[in-house]
């Protein structure tokens, strides 16, 4: 009944030159940023791709490698590029011409957002170092689109029980992902992939979703991604979510992670509660989820009807209301309620998420009931929690100001949502550099649930309650002795026997054998909830070398 589970995020950043108009190679800039994130020791550590299996499908099939699009084969040797393991146990690397930060494993949505936003600090610092080293001023933006047809990802990952039929996961998550935009969208200027139509919409990512279910992530993007790489033990699967926006505000991102986790908890406990989940899903099944995804994003009134598969219609707000009610119903059936009728939530994080979900639906109701744009502009409290609304208010005020200064008809026609100034502000909202970021200047007007000092600490220290603690500390203390790292394995060199002929180039490369096994030792850390600070601190303090630490932990694990 808890929101707590292993979860984490991955953020691809837009990379460009700070000076407008210059020609640049985004791939080279991305490599420069990744190199800027490295220190002397972490540069020599390889990412171990041998645990990756990008063609395994959660629907019980495997895609033949020969049939896979090349960019799906993330374990391919040619992609074994520079990776940096950050002090907090995360990963920085180049993914599809973008510098990416993969946050370390965390155990609740508040901690996940804390470590996600720590990545902004890490990446901005890396960009500044890269700019200084290369003499090329590099800018990073936390967004998902360029308005010209390209989109890049902000991904979520959730560990869940494999015993839940994936068909149920797909059906419930489709409903959730289509409709959570109403409080989790980050807002975007432009309609359709190439901004063919002027306007503003709730989500940056929605227009780039074109299928219901699939293994792919960069073409015909699906609502439900089926890549089945758990990076964990056989008991669990990893739900990999690719439809979300790159939020700057904290509340929508915490909600995005927290509500999804609670719905996964619902799926994991429906049998215990004797809750007819299939009938529930039948009642709410959308006739065309992809079209509904676009409809919801394009509808600023939040009232657009969505056609149901079995007749009738509903809307995004009602679906979210029923999803929350279902969580309440199952929680009450399993653990009962208090004197007020509230389920006995087991921890502070869960209590907070359920309250925030309720507040989000109240905020959306206020937006829905606003009579016109003037009324929506006055919703300052709601805007402090709903990012797309905050951004829309900012841009709508600017649009009106521009229109008020226009005297002739031709100029008036260009003072709508296609005005260049609005696109500039939309982009500046996403800028990481606090000296140019519109969001940084307005952040004090948003509701925050995580303190700035907590985010700064998360950039330097790994989470204490997952295996990320060992990964981060191993690299920080013994970086030069670490040969390869992955989410589920750590490999160290023996400094007494390693040969000068052993090349670090091939450590962790799926197409090459590792160096002599006499020179290496690997520790399996498949269980994300093992190898925590409590498990490892004493042995870390006592170890003289990385290999000593891994061997000591292996003995403990076997015992």
> Helical content, roughly?
40-55%
The domain count comes to: 2
CATH architecture of the largest domain: 2-Layer Sandwich
Mean pLDDT: 91
Query: In this structure, how is the largest beta sheet organized?
Result: 6 strands, antiparallel
- The fraction of residues assigned to DSSP E strands is 5-15%
Strand order of the biggest β-sheet: 4-5-6-1-8-13
Number of beta-strand segments: 18
The gyration radius over C-alpha positions equals 24 Å
Q: Which class of the largest domain in CATH terms? A: Alpha Beta
Q: How many helical stretches?
A: 19
**Low-pLDDT ranges:** 508-515
Write the layout of secondary structure elements.
Layout: E1 7-12, E2 14-17, H1 26-37, E3 46-47, E4 83-85, E5 91-95, E6 98-102, H2 109-134, E7 138-141, E8 154-161, H3 166-179, H4 181-184, E9 188-191, E10 197-201, E11 209-214, E12 221-225, E13 236-241, H5 250-273, H6 277-284, H7 289-298, E14 306-307, E15 313-314, H8 316-335, H9 348-369, H10 373-377, H11 380-383, H12 387-404, H13 409-413, H14 420-429, H15 438-442, H16 452-460, H17 468-478, E16 482-485, E17 489-493, E18 520-524, H18 533-542, H19 546-558
Parallel strand pairs: 3-16, 11-12
Antiparallel strand pairs: 1-6, 1-8, 2-7, 4-5, 5-6, 8-13, 9-10, 14-15, 16-17, 17-18
Helix pairs in contact: 1-2, 2-5, 2-16, 3-5, 3-6, 3-7, 3-8, 5-8, 5-9, 8-9, 12-14
Keywords: Ligase, Proteasome
GO biological process, one term: protein pupylation
EC number: 6.3.2.-
